[in-house]
Predict the 3D structure of the following.
Amino acid sequence: MRISSAYIAQMFVASQDQQETALANTQQQIASGLQFSSPAQNPSAATQVLGLQQTLSQLTQYGTNSSLAQSRLSVEDTTLSSVINTLQSIRSLALSAQSGTADANTRATLAGEIQSDAQSLLQLANTQDGNGQYIFSGTATTTAPFGQGAGGVAYAGNQNQRLVQIGPGVQIADGDSGARVFQQVPNGNGTFIAAANPANTGSAVVGANSVTSLASWNAGKPPYTIAFSSASAYTVKDSTGATVSSGTYTDGNAISFAGAQLTLSGTPAAGDTFTVSKSHNQDVFSTIANLVSALTPSSGASPTATADAINRAIEALDQAQNTVSLVQSQVGSRLQTIDSQNSTNSSMQLQLQSSVSNLQDLDYAAAATTLQQQMTALQAAQQSFARIAGLSLFNYIQ
């Protein structure tokens, strides 16, 4: 078969094009640092890289979400600490008002200080985060949660929580509603509240009280009324009027019935009554308003009624502190969850980035060797063709 010079030249050009294309690809790899720059060059690896990069993008978004939630929860945590300190200050002032040396003028002065603390508490309840969003408005973050009105402090937010995705299948609440923190506070001891009848004429006031048997309390029929027929004889009746207990009262000794136990201090008068009813939610601003009223009573209020009202306010303040402390502990748990998830996300990112690198990043040493081989082969082919093209029969005729 005769092979023409034109065919030889055509084959050389085609081969040289292939070699130059391969050389250009290698040079592009070295310049970009990537094994391939388009999916067509390695479809299988490109598909895997695309999936890994999508997951990395999600992890980046989770990181952004975590930072925002962490910032917001940190503001809430700091604010709740300030709320607890303010409540403790108000409680200390209330205890000072119970001092035997506190007269009407002293209590009025204390009431003024408590009102000042109440304003500070209102400001804390309307705290905003770094983005100007209210942290205690639920999901209505652009609405100031609390406002002072003629009827007292009212809540304008909602009771929803905004859930933030911080990891695959992991969501976390980035705040708590003001209703949860400041309004859903049980009064009394959290199960029941005992109070003296304001019309009592004796000196007895309600002291320490507790639940001795929750099952017995739940099985009973509150509210209960403790009625004194004399300074020492009492009868306890439930809401139906049935007698559940009776006995002899001694100052400082506990009265027990239906799973409840309370202690009175002072001397009751015949006809005095005390009620024991289920606890109900009482917002902290109402508690403070009741305390201020107790410290600045009307002229007809008895010292005993005033003392009992102050005791009930102190009891409610304790419940408020417990509620805020519980919310703060939950905030702390969420912050720990964020830290833990961030660590998990970081580990996942490193693993995914390593996988992407293995699939896509270039081995420079191997690429440099390949480049040198391709350049040598191309130069050799060019030199060979030049010599072949220069051959002629006339070179061999003498």
